[in-house]
């Protein structure tokens, strides 16, 4: 067993093919243009990195025309930085245009020739993954048809898998002729399939098939293997014999396991939405994430690692740890993976490393790389165009030395809380220990102090914290009086929060013109007082500003660096708050946002639109005031992530689309299936506003951390709005 559990890393580096087009994750995240990313990787404290030397990149057009100009300086720099390289040669790809996974004659030999060239050029690289996740890639490319060559039959699946296994065997043989030290780190995504009794045959087959890649490499697929006859029936017996006669066992098995890797098959289709219905040609069943339905939950990562060790007895590395969720949940999953590996190592299982994956985030995996999709931040967030450090960096540095962890990383993840269950619960047989619930899902850590218990934003942040299992205290003006420095001090000292969110303040824009001093006190002076007291105690703060700090004269949406010029008292109060807090010492985050809407609070424009239209009433909305509407749940999640990351300064947080109020109202009507003809676009002056408003004040960001699209926000609003349904039932 190695001396210590190592921390490895890896940037998501897939180059896959859809039809005649290749999709490159390094292009999507910008890593192709940033050699300096490698310095950031080194600062994470990783011992090794899974890094691509991909066949598709090096020799895209002809096998004898290799371009090393991009990879040479990067591998050289990694070596200078003291980071060992685990070279990947194909990553969810099917090779360059002149081959593919069903090229029985050429794929494996071509990959082996590429491997030989890599080994000759970089003889100091001692670890290789010639093909990443061959079983998973074969499923997605030749059984499900998502990726090239887009086949959907089982014979093609097995051919694709055998060609990749041959590619691994021949590649390692070629590499070892040059570097006898070279080790094979063979990865795959492995989970377990559970099912109802009616579809246990399919589940049983899945649970044998999941090991097929490693079984083949280890020489286990002989005539006594349960898959031999099944695969041989496709005319592939000679291929199986050749592999069994010359196996290539991994030196390290790389287990990739995600929170959704364990599956559950259920013949009772009515219990699940149509999108998860499927079948095997003989039976129909729903295929869902086991964590979302089973009670007690599946054994998950720890169970898979134990099974892998029991089956092979080969050293194991967790080769991908990533959770596309909120920052706190990302940290909890990272910490749990590390703690699980350390625990199993203490019990005698040869765990070598934990690999923090998706260092630069990943794009389009929600569409399985088949179409443009969403970006999920990783350890570094590149949504703003350049890498931004997240709280995961601090956790990575803390793990190997067992240093203190961020307060939000110390509580149970969603997969260990009741919110994990999305479907009717299915009870599974399990030992008594597995039926024991966590002693408490309430995090035992310093809280976030939230001001604004009676307001939309305060309630939303409290709800967001409850959902995310973040310890928090929600208080109103009786619990902390921002006019009184002693009250502020007492509250901070009593609750000892790790962060303060000031969601209180004056919200009546028109009334501010009549009572300006009250507005200034609530929005600026009190907020500055609170932030100063927090700074004295080294407590970060989050405050909120508005699009009304601008005058509307710009030709494009405002970004964080644009100069404010408020038109009314409300805007001036927010600008005073911004300037006052920015001048203070300490860590202060200020989020400018606009035009809140939420289905969970009745006091917002979108709910007013839906209420009026549901009653058949006309609704007047300004056609000459352009804003960027902001869905409050999206705002809360992103702002909490930034707070956890320790970000400071001004950030623009909206759903990043410019709409007039009238256009916004029509979009709400369309999403709810209501009549947009009842919406009456009118000039703002017809609505009787007392305070002046900027005609054009949409917000955009130059810093990243973008919220989801306005289309996604409106769909979410419509799905969660209970008001319309109740009013329709009452009318009926």
UniProtKB/TrEMBL annotation:
Its cofactor is Mg(2+). SUPFAM superfamilies: (Trans)glycosidases, NAD(P)-binding Rossmann-fold domains. Residues 448-703 form the RmlD-like substrate binding domain. Its EC number is 1.1.1.133. It catalyses: dTDP-beta-L-rhamnose + NADP(+) = dTDP-4-dehydro-beta-L-rhamnose + NADPH + H(+). GO terms for biological process: carbohydrate metabolic process; dTDP-rhamnose biosynthetic process. The keyword Transferase does not apply. Keywords: NADP, Oxidoreductase. Pfam families: RmlD_sub_bind. InterPro entries: dTDP_dehydrorham_reduct, GH, NAD(P)-bd_dom_sf, RmlD-like-bd. Pathway: Carbohydrate biosynthesis; dTDP-L-rhamnose biosynthesis. One of its GO terms (molecular function) is dTDP-4-dehydrorhamnose reductase activity. Binds 1 Mg(2+) ion per monomer. Catalyzes the reduction of dTDP-6-deoxy-L-lyxo-4-hexulose to yield dTDP-L-rhamnose. Belongs to the dTDP-4-dehydrorhamnose reductase family. This is dTDP-4-dehydrorhamnose reductase. The lineage of its organism: Bacteria, Pseudomonadati, Pseudomonadota, Alphaproteobacteria, Sphingomonadales.
């Amino acid at each position: 067993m190695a001396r210590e559990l190592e921390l490895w890393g890896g940037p998501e580096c897939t180059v896959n093919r859809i039809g005649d087009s290749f999709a490159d994750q390094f292009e999507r995240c910008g890593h192709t243009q940033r050699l300096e990313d490698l310095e950031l990787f080194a600062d994470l404290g990783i011992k090794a990195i899974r890094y691509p030397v991909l066949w598709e990149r090096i020799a895209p057009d002809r096998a004898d025309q290799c371009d090393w100009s991009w990879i040479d300086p990067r591998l050289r720099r990694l070596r200078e930085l003291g980071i060992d390289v685990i070279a990947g040669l194909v990553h969810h790809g099917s090779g360059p245009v002149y081959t593919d996974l069903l090229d029985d004659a050429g794929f494996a030999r071509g990959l082996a020739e590429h491997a030989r060239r890599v080994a000759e050029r970089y003889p100091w690289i001692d670890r290789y993954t010639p093909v990443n996740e061959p079983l998973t890639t074969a499923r997605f490319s030749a059984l499900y048809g998502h990726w090239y060559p887009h086949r959907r039959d089982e014979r093609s699946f097995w051919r694709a898998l055998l060609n990749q296994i041959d590619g691994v065997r021949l590649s390692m043989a070629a590499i070892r002729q040059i570097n006898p030290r070279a080790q094979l780190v063979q990865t795959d995504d492995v989970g377990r399939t559970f099912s109802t009794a009616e579809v246990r045959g399919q589940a049983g087959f899945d649970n044998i098939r999941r090991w097929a890649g490693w079984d083949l490499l280890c020489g286990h697929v002989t005539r006594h293997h349960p898959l031999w006859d099944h695969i041989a029936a496709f005319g592939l017996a000679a291929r199986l014999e050749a592999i069994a006669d010359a196996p290539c066992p991994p030196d390290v098995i790389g287990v990739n396991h995600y929170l959704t890797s364990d599956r559950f098959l259920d013949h009772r289709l009515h219990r699940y939405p149509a999108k998860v219905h499927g079948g095997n040609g003989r039976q129909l069943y729903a295929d869902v994430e086991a964590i979302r339905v089973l009670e007690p939950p599946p054994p998950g990562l720890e169970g898979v690692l134990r099974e892998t060790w029991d089956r092979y007895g080969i050293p194991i590395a967790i080769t991908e740890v990533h959770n596309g969720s909120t920052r706190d949940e990302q940290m909890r999953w990272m910490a749990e993976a590390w703690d699980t590996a350390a625990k199993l190592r203490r019990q005698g299982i040869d765990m070598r490393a934990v690999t923090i994956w998706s260092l630069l985030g990943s794009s389009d995996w929600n569409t399985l790389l088949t179409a443009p999709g969403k970006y999920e931040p990783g350890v570094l967030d590149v949504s703003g165009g350049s890498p931004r450090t997240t709280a995961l960096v601090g956790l990575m540095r803390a793990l190997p030395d067992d240093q203190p962890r961020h307060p939000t990383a110390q509580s149970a993840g969603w997969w260990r809380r009741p919110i994990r269950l999305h479907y009717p619960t299915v009870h599974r047989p399990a030992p008594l220990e597995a039926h024991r619930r966590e002693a408490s899902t309430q995090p035992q850590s310093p809280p976030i102090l939230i001001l604004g218990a009676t307001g939309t934003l305060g309630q939303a942040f409290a709800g967001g914290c409850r959902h995310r299992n973040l310890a928090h205290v929600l208080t109103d003006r009786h619990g902390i009086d921002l006019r009184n420095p002693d009250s502020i001090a007492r509250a901070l000292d009593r609750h000892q929060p790790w962060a303060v969110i000031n969601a209180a303040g004056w919200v009546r824009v028109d009334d501010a013109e009549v009572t300006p001093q009250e507005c200034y006190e609530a929005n600026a002076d009190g907020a500055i007082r609170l932030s100063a007291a927090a700074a004295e105690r080294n407590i970060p703060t989050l405050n909120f500003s508005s699009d009304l700090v601008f005058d509307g004269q710009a030709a494009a949406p405002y970004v964080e660096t644009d100069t404010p010029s408020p038109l009314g008292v409300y805007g001036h109060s927010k600008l005073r708050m911004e300037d006052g807090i920015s001048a203070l010492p300490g860590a202060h985050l200020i989020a400018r946002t606009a035009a809140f809407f939420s289905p969970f609070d009745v006091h917002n424009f979108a709910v007013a639109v839906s209420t009026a239209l549901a009653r058949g009433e006309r609704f007047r909305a300004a056609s000459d005031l352009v804003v960027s509407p902001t869905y409050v749940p999206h705002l809360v999640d992103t702002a909490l992530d930034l707070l956890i990351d320790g970000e400071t300064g001004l950030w623009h947080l909206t759903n990043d689309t410019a709409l007039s109020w009238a256009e916004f109202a029509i979009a709400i009507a369309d999403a709810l299936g209501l009549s947009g003809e009842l919406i009456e676009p009118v000039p703002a002056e017809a609505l009787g506003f007392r305070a002046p408003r900027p005609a054009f004040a949409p917000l955009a960001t130059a810093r990243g951390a973008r919220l989801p699209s306005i289309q996604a926000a409106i769909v979410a609003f419509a799905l969660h709005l209970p008001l319309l349904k109740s009013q329709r039932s009452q009318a009926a």
